[in-house]
Amino acid sequence: MFIDFEKQKRLRVNGTAHASREDPLIKHTVGVQLIVRVEVHAIFPNCPRYIPKMQLIEPSVYTPRDGIKPPEPAWKSFPDFKDAVHPRQKTHSGSDK
Predict the structure, then answer these.
(1) For residue 46, which of 10, 37, 63, 81 is within the disulfide window of CB 3.0 to 4.6 Å?
(2) What sign does the dihedral 64-58-61-67 (CA atoms) show?
(3) At CA 75, angle to CA 71 and CA 79, rounded to 5?
(4) pLDDT for 14-69, tens place per residue?
């Protein structure tokens, strides 16, 4: 499901998804750890009721950007999560373009 919070629209995609750490697209996408490809069976609009209207004020510091390493969120180092949080995989930083 893809949701546009600014225009309050929703698109539903039905299909079979496959996640890969070896997809060739990874080396061209900043900050990505996995690529998910979907074999699409059906695409259709979905009722936008209950989608809150939101507006982007500024990008998050956690959003991957070319040549900038995003900070790790503080919650990932909480003792309660130490056995559950997977370590960050090396990602493409965009700096080798």
Answers:
(1) 10
(2) positive
(3) 125
(4) 999 999 999 999 888 888 889 999 999 999 999 988 999 998 899 888 888 888 87
The token pair at 1 is: 């499901």
Spatial neighbors of 80 by CB under 8 A, at least 6 apart, are: none
- Residues whose CB falls within 8 Å of the CB of residue 77, separated by 6 or more in sequence, listed in order: none
Of the candidates 83, 69, 73, which has an alpha carbon nearest to the alpha carbon of residue 31?
69
Residue (of 91, 94, 84) closest to 34 by Cα position: 91
Contact 31, 62 (CB under 8 A): no
What pLDDT is attached to residue 97? Answer: 47
3-state SS assignment for residue 75: helix
Question: pTM for the full model?
Answer: 0.62
Sorted by sequence, the CB contacts under 8 Å of residue 48 that are 6+ apart come out as 8, 9, 10
